[in-house]
Structures are given as structure tokens and as C-alpha cells.
Amino acid sequence: MRRITTILCSLALVLAACGSADDTPTIEPEPGASGGDEGADEDAPEDDGTEDDVTEPPADETDPEPEPLPGDDDGAGQSDALLGAEVRQLTPEVAADAGVAESEVMVVTTELVTWSDGAIGCPEPGMMYTQALVEGYRIVFEAGGDTYTYHGAQGQEPFRCDDPQDPVARS
């Protein structure tokens, strides 16, 4: 019997502690009580415990939109925004390959395309590829007087293609 009473008392304490937030008493210091604020500015506004003095960072600083990039968007109006990360990723590589500063790398075109097969517009001799249409993209740069072409499949990393083939014509 004593064990049951102990369990019930424990359960009652747990349930009492789980009351709603509205049931939680607020403890406020008594006026004139010494709380270490002897030197506090009397003209300063009192803290009423509300959250209004918490500053939120402006929305534009937390998740900046990528800047639009130059290039042909194939009429879709979305390829620049969709391929901006790839362009930023590839620019240092292109600059190094061309032996120029990154600021001298120009984007000629960024476009969403459909490749005719798994070679993604860049077949290698002796290789076999899936014979199915592949949604992807093509990015062309110009740097140091040379053209650098990169291909990719949707959701995959771009790769440099030195002997590029054209994608399937869109209707």
C-alpha cells in the first residue's frame, strides 16, 4: 500500500509540473528590493518581460537571392537563376585554365537543355550510354580568347566537355 501511495504522489507532482503555460506563476521583484540595480538609470524604460526588444535580422540579409547572370536563358527566363551556383562554382576553374583573373571570365550562355542520351552531349570513344533523353544544362564561358563548355544532367555536377555536341532541339 505504501508503494502505491508513493507512486500516486509522484504522479501527482509530475502532472502538476506539466500544467499549461498560462498556469505558470510570474515572479516579479518587490518594489524597492535590492536586485543589483542600484546604479540603474531611472529614466530608462522598464523591462516589462515582453519580447519586443528582440531584433530580427532583415529578411534580405538572411537568405540573399543570387544575382542574375548574363547569358542566353533559352527563353525560359529561369536558367540563369537555376544555374547561378554552377556558374559561381566553375568560374575559378575556368579562370585558372585560361590563365586569367576571374573578373575576365565571361558567361556566353547558360541554358536548360535535353540531351539525346546518357553521354550528356559529350560522348567518349568506346563508351556505351543509356539511350534515353536526359534533362540537363549547358554553360559556355569565354576567357583568354578561348571557349569553355560545361555540360550536366539535372541534379548532377557539371563537367568540362572539350568536344561538345548539341542538345536535342526543343519544339
For the termini, the CA-CA separation is 84 Å
With strands numbered from the N-terminus, the spatial order across the biggest sheet is 1-2-3-4
Oligomeric form: single chain
- Helix-and-strand structural type: alpha+beta
Work out the strand percent.
Answer: 15-25%
What is the number of helices? 3
Which geometry do the CA atoms define? globular
- Tally of extended strands? 4
Which parts are unreliable, with pLDDT below 50 for 5 consecutive residues or more?
A: 59-77
Computed over alpha carbons, the radius of gyration is: 32 Å
- The overall pLDDT, averaged over residues, is 74
- The run of helices and strands is HHHEEEE
Helix amount:
10-25%
Q: Biggest β-sheet, characterized?
A: 4 strands, antiparallel
Please tell me about this protein's structure:
With 171 residues, the protein is of the alpha+beta class. The protein has a domain at 79-160. 23% of the residues lie in helices and 18% in strands. The longest helix is centred in the middle third of the chain and has 20 residues, at 79-98.
